[in-house]
Input
Amino acid sequence: MKAFVFSQKGIIEEKNLPDVRLDMTCEADRRAAVLKPRFLSPCSSDVHTVFAGNGPRRENLVLGHEGLAEVVETGPEVRDFHPGELVAVSAVMPEPGDRTGHAGMPFSGTKLGRNIDGMWSEYFRVPDADINLAHIPEGLSAEAALMAVDMMATGYTAAEEAGIEEGQTVAVIGSGAVGLMAGAAARRKAGPAGRVIMIGSAKDPVSAEAAKLFGVDIYISYRDGSLVYANDRRDLTPFAARDPRANASGSPAVDEVFRSTGGYGTDAVLICGGGPEALIQACDLVRYGTGVIVNMAYIEGSGTVSLPIFSLGRGMSGKTFKFELSRGGRDWTERMLAEALSCGSVQGRLVTHRLKGFDSIPEALELMRRRPAGLIKIMVEI
Output
């Protein structure tokens, strides 16, 4: 079968690999399924893996963890999925009995394209099919279903872990697909009385327009702190002079969030993009005593991260940090698919570019790497 494999840093190449088959004498294969990809979406995680990592974990590693696929074969112990069915494949696959997806190790739950071969092949295998595949609701568009398995699952995980309540103010750092979905989730949880502020790119108007669509009230440029738009500038107490140490990074975007909140900061910060500086900004922005910061962003490198001592209240700030992997598995994925259906498949608007054919996968990956103007996500129809 044809497959695109991660052969060395910066390179994926097409190879012919042995066909994927189930061995019914193998206990794990009795619970597994073989699938054929139908709709794929290269992820920024794939870009990090290929272009920023140290190289493939093993020879001929097949990438790809974001897609919809047709069931081809199931083991005899698979009860809920059948050949010929189009299903959503969970991007994160917890082990049986493990709800975190980590199983005690970093990224151990993100199996496809990391620990086992992914979806960029003519056929691929999914372990424990009954807990890692998901039924797609009737009436849900392919675009929206495709966005639910990873982008929506990750963004909504951030909002869930932050414990956002009605009426709270939430900042989202990052305006890519995950950030937009985190903004949508924050909007749903904070309700009409709450506010959602996004710090994102002002270079391309597409993300800002999408942010409006998903309910973001205030959009701030991360580069210069300028207001791209503000749908909710309530009457606030005048912005009081703050100790300059309250903005440890010197970010003008942080100053603008303080202005937009009367100097109080936010109840939660959801980090969905940026580098280590985003952690510093989040620590500055979130309120003392009850503030929660949830990081969903991939931080490159293997060094250390520094945090601002002043904003940490010299270690006694009452601020909570969480470093999270997206929730996954069938239950969470089907919850995302149902949510997407209830929203009228608006999540499908994240798909801005479409390609056709298996051989277009490298082109799609390169597009995600270059991020031309107007691109949020790509759908490859096989």
